Amino acid sequence: MLKYIVKRLLLLIPVLFGVSLFVFLVLHLFTADPAAMMLGQHATKEQVEALRESLGFNKPLYVQFGIFLSQILQGDFGTSLMTRSAVTDELLTRFPATIELAFAAMLIATVVGVTVGVISAVKQYSLFDYLSMVGALLGVSMPIFWLGLMLIIFFSVTLGWLPVSGRIAVGMEPSTITHFYLIDSLLTGNWEAFKSAVSHLILPAVALASYSMAIIARMTRSTMLEVIRQDYIRTARSKGLVESVVVFKHALRNALIPVITVIGLQMGSLLGGAVLTETVFSWPGIGSFVVNAILAGDFPVVQGGVIMVATVFVVVNLIVDVLYAFLDPRIKYS
Amino acid sequence: MLRKRSILLLMLVSLLALALVGCGGDKEKAAQTAKPKVFVFGQGADPRGLDPAFVDDGESANPIVNIYDGLVRYKTGSTEIEPALATEWSPSADGKEWTFKLRQGVKFHDGTPFNADAVVFSVSRQLPPQRTDAMPYASFTFGPVEKVEKVDDYTVKFVLSEPYAPFLANLAMALAAPIVSPAAVEKYGDKFIENPVGTGPFKFVQWKKGEQIVLEANKEYWDGAPKLDKLVYKFIKENSVRASELRTGSIQAMNGLDPNDVKMLEDAGLSVIKNPGMNINYLGFFCNKKPFNDPKLRLAVSHAINRENLINFLYQGLAELPNSVLPSFMPGHDKSLQAPEYNPEKAKQLLAEAGYANGLKVTLLTYSNVRPYNPVGGDKLAAAIQADLRKVGIEAEIKTYPWKEYKEIYTPEIVEAGDFMLYGWIGDNGDPDNFLSLLETKEIKSTLNAAKYSNKKVDELLVKARTAQKQEERNAAYSELQKIVQDEAPWVFLGHSKDMAAVSKNVEGFDLHPVGVIYFHNVDIK
Fold first, then answer.
1. Partner B contacted by A149 (CB < 8 A)
2. How many helices (H) and strands (E) does chain B have?
3. Looking at the domain assignment, is residue A38 inside a domain?
4. Contact at 8 Å (CB) between B400 and B379?
5. What is the pLDDT of residues A229-254, one digit of tens each?
6. CA A133-A139-A145 angle, 5° bins
7. Do B32 and A108 touch (CB under 8 A)?
């Protein structure tokens, strides 16, 4: 097992190298001249040239990439052109917000998705089944951006139940320990901050979860249907086992392997979807930051952000693969 | 079994979390309006930074003007200049040396004293050889400054390379001009951009990137303590989401309104401020070549364009009708001036007098995007003008370019491609020279004088106004200049696009300054 994990971790190197190369090339070949952008409307040609020189843009592309790589290896993603501070710091201060949102969405998507999927499978062709599958279809096809705005208009503006945007009410921030507001507010026993943080989290998490929730529900339903028709389920039932034991212990557990795979893959789409969700809900995470960076031509931030998200994605996939072995004793890595 | 339990636990936790939230919203609102007075202002993005030397964006200018002071400042609602950190000033007889007497007893937020050394430090770091490429406004704001010297602890002297009266207005700008604490710059180094220390009405407390900037009242402010206790800039990217925040009362004011949201906000009981901005949207004739080298023909076109209709329908009233080049809040604005009125008959008559009784074919150049002075975009504006011109027998062919290209190809070659163009200007410092020098002969080469208009008398008047000692002399020169421009019509003045902000009804003293920022010193919540 350990050998397998080490092997997978080593595989990270070529994957991240490829991602870095791709991002670097795309940004350097296809974006406007950041030097001209940085200097603003009163810049002369000479100033732009001097800045290009000092930023190293005049060197050949492979030399620039070499410098870039050696910097990343030291954990240095360069300096943001917009804010003139270290990209690594900028990303790390925003990362907890993105993770908090992605995990909340994952939680909602998994709990609701699996529950709906199981009920739909057990009560196949019932009204619940039809309704939830239509709902799932909607969830898959609804653009996050639009859904987010609709949620705001309905739950915040019209009903006034939930706050419109942001991560917590102004002035409520808990003292910083982990940078995760939910955890920090619990650790410090700041109940008001916790409530505010949760209320701010719900709408963006639901908007972000919608797509994954739908996929997970459909996946759970179809694998459950497959499993329920297996011989051993009939055996279990004929033994006289209670239906809930049959469903949860015998069926769900065996149906869970493909579902876990999907959940793992959805983590990636959650991180991607966070870009839009964070923009709509002014969620101060990496997604909204990278969007601003793209618009401002701030390529060091875009590079750093993409590589960071890619790393998380690869690591989550590894974790999912390792989880298989725990869920299904038949799977062994050697 | 264990797994089953953990799934159940997950479900329970999430249910609990959902249940907790039910009544959260109202309590938050209550917490915000209770004492102390906290004002939350919604804007679209984080500032690039809070060191005035290193930024050029409006998101930075807004907090900067409330954290720092300059030597002088703009009066409320206009771009006239009044004392701030300098109490009085006088130019030398040749206009090349400006001496400023500084306000005494003022302290920076870090407790260090404000004095001549601080001024020399703040300015010198932006002059050669210390000036770097990362200072976007230094060369504009301090362009004419050769050096700045301390005369005594509370007197400084600026030495200019040439007499240049608009220099005073530069010192009121939000960018480059504000005075920073030398001790704090020393202490924070590169991080000063995130830890600003000035003398302004609000002290910097905290900047949570992507979320908010928190400022607190500077109770010892030299011009009286501000009425608010805290000022928070909250960053909400989407215009419509920001408007929703305002409607639910979790922010007190916002800028960057979508024109489509104006009515919705007004219906919801909020005040929408619409002030003419420091800009002009104009049509420029290429005055250096046929056919528009003939002022008569330029006047004909001017009379043929229904400017009121453009403002009322194309811009839905969100622009002010100009009577000349300068917006109404600017020194040098002359109420007595009148731009050519809409009169198709007169246009036809002038057209005939110029020798085009049988019609005229011309090419109108425009840009494809929206601009701050033209929120509907260059192509729509061009189409509207084309329709007006057709009514008097002028057939205008439209050529559209993307903005980047449009700015770059504004060269002799593009002038060949057309006869007149749509363009505009966003002011920098609120001084009339900043607008009127767009008509100076020497700016043809720099392409700022897009119309390639050249008139010796206009050039002389511009120089006279720059070297004049008193504002009245300058204003007289500008009036004379604008009368010439009125008769010769190198431009058609299409509009001063309005800046907008929305604010709760219980707020007092809130206004959007013509330069586009909001000064919070006198703002109060009732």
1. yes
2. 18, 20
3. yes
4. yes
5. 888 888 888 888 888 888 887 888 78
6. 170
7. no
User: In the structure encoding, which two tokens stand for residue A28, read together?
Assistant: 């350097």
Q: How far is B484 from chain A (nearest CA, A)?
A: 29
CATH number of B68-192: 3.90.76.10
Task: Tell me the CATH class for B279-497.
Answer: alpha beta
Counting residues of chain B whose pLDDT is more than 90, the rounded percentage is: 70
- Residue A105 confidence (pLDDT): 93
Tokens 């800039």 belong to B233
Q: With an 8 Å Cβ cutoff, is A150 touching chain B? A: no
Interface test with chain B among A110, A282, A298, A326, by most B beta carbons within 10 Å: A282
Residues in A closer than 8 angstroms to B254, CB to CB, are none
- Global pTM value: 0.83
Alpha helices in chain A (DSSP H): 2-30, 34-39, 45-55, 61-73, 87-122, 127-141, 144-151, 181-187, 191-228, 231-238, 243-245, 253-280, 286-296, 299-327
Supply the pLDDT for residue B10.
47
Please identify among residues 108-127 of chain A the ones whose CB lies closer than 8 Å to any CB of chain B: 108, 110-111, 114-115
Res B34: pLDDT = 54
| Domains of chain B by residue range | 68-192, 279-497
Query: What percentage of chain B reaches a pLDDT higher than 70?
Result: 92
Say if the Cβ atoms of A169 and B32 lie within 8 Å. Answer: yes
A42 and A157, same domain (yes or no): no
Q: Which residue has the higher pLDDT, B385 or A294?
A: B385
Measured between CB atoms, does B4 come within 8 Å of chain A?
A: yes
Render pLDDT for B410-441 as a digit per residue (tens, 0 to 9): 555 666 788 999 999 989 899 999 999 999 99
